[in-house]
Amino acid sequence: MPTTVIDSHEVHVDDEGFMTQYDEWTEGLGGALAAQIGIEMTDEHWEAIRFLRSDFAAHGETATLRRVATVGGIPTKQLFTLFPKKPAKKMAYIAGLPKPRGCV
């Protein structure tokens, strides 16, 4: 697995730049990842990211947008506002998780 340095931390990533080691992530690193893709984190953003990480820990795979909306209770429209264009992919990237199944 390749590694890269983000916010002074060496982390393992896949070929697309998604982190591959769950335990290497911190909220500080998440903020740096968000800044790299032009997202300024707010409490609403962190709510979605924390849900994604806890759901991943419980189920072993990155939640889809539909799961975040139905189980996480964050409306799809709001997710598109918080993470424009490709919310599931952007949330996974910021949360340090693999890209959700079905994402291109």
UniProtKB/TrEMBL annotation:
Its main location: cytoplasm. SUPFAM superfamilies: DsrC, the gamma subunit of dissimilatory sulfite reductase. It is found in: Cytoplasm. It comes from the Bacteria. Pfam families: DsrC. Transmembrane segments: none annotated. Signal peptide: none annotated. Keywords: Cytoplasm. Belongs to the DsrC/TusE family. This is TusE/DsrC/DsvC family sulfur relay protein. The lineage of its organism: Bacteria, Bacillati, Actinomycetota, Actinomycetes, Propionibacteriales.
